[in-house]
Design goal:
The chain is α+β, with helices and mostly antiparallel strands and 507 residues long. It is 51% helix and 8% strand.
Length: 507
Amino acid sequence: MKRLKGSLTVFFALVMVSIMALFFSLAELLRYKTLTEQADIISTRAAENFMAKYQREMFGAYGILGRDTGCGGTDSDMPSLCNEIIADLSENGNPPEDGMSLIRLSPESCEIVNYGFYTDDNGAPFIKAGVRRVVEEIPEIMLESFRTDGDTARDAFLNGYDADALMAGGESGMAEADAIKAELEKPPSPGEEGNRPAIPEKSAEVIAAEEKYAGVENPITTVRSCGADILSLAVPRGMTISDKAVDIGQMPSHRLILNHGNRSPRETAAPTDMLLFDQYILTDFQRVGHDMQQSGLKYAVEYIICGNATDRENLKGVADWLLAFRETENIAAIVKDGGKMSEAYTFALAIVGWTGNPAIVESVKWGIIAAWAMVESVLDIRTLLSGGKVPVLKSPADWTSSIMNLGTLLSGDAKAKDCPSGISYENYLRMMLVFLSPRDAAFRTMDMVESAVRTKPEYADLRMENVLYAGDISMTVVGSPVFMTFVPGGDRVLPYTFIRERQTDYL
């Protein structure tokens, strides 16, 4: 059989080389497109994995998402976080298994830029995080109610009655009456006989008043004799006050914390944000009558309001505020009630009416009103701490105390009437929160979060100034050409560099 001889012309060889070069170039172009998509995939996955490693204890107890950049220490360690991201990129883009992968990418560098911490901008990011927690649960009509409560509290303290000043005026009037009486009863000195003024003759109205209130304790004296410790008077019988305490000097609100994030634009807290943040505090933190079994102080909301080191001090601060507020409103209730005003005036006549001095009687009358309002306010606080409700401005039907037995009411376990249409202890706390500055509200809330989380041994070094809320991650990965080695001059093609930026934001 005759064999055929093959031959390859130079022209055909050149054509084949060109065709193969075109084929491998197209293959490398397709591979480059695939690498581009792979760079997108692994960078997105790395950013998602970074965000997924949020501080779980903080989220579980308080609903705050954040990444602890301390990495087990007390100082922020951003390079360690970048190394973590590089390791993640390497695992997903350059797996260690043997063999060739046409879509293998190797991480070259990583940088976290434009980042922010929860303590930046006076705690505004933390306020935003709290708002995000509750915003979907609060309808606009409730927000309007919150605004009204805040306006009521401000008006009471700016334009209301000053109970302490009124009671001091009453004491001053009684002291003046005592001085007049002492002067009139003082034995005359030689030559004064017959020239001394006599004690004024009592009117029938004064005599009737003295008979009516004979044996009844002077309200002003009764109240002043109780001392200044409102907590001992206002805590309902049977209620045990928590003795928990914290080292306040170690709290974020007492540490020197400067903005050390570089995020732009900066976060700010609007007035509506503050109303929602107050709701977050009341919803996610424990207080008197609402034990959530959280670590740290039992009266966390009271701490946020007062900022003291112990539960007892914080409860006393809240009780003092409640007393001042309730006194103002209860004085207003007495003033609107003609019957109570008449009682106060008659009692003042019984005490100092004999002087015949209308100015003294008037000052004592207002002192009695303030003392009466104070006793009613103590009963109000007992009701609130027991879970009851008390209206802001009482009607005669809502009133509990009688001017005839104020001392007995203070020393016993009497409480004000529980009014279903009134305001609860929680809503009175909301009124108090209105007076906090955004920074105090944010940082004292972070105090409670940090102190609670740090009770866990594995999180003992957590610092809120290290908790990241947002950051942009810039990642660089590289890939080497594969098919270009089969193309003339392909060895001059440089490795491919892919730079990807991903935004991470918990807010």
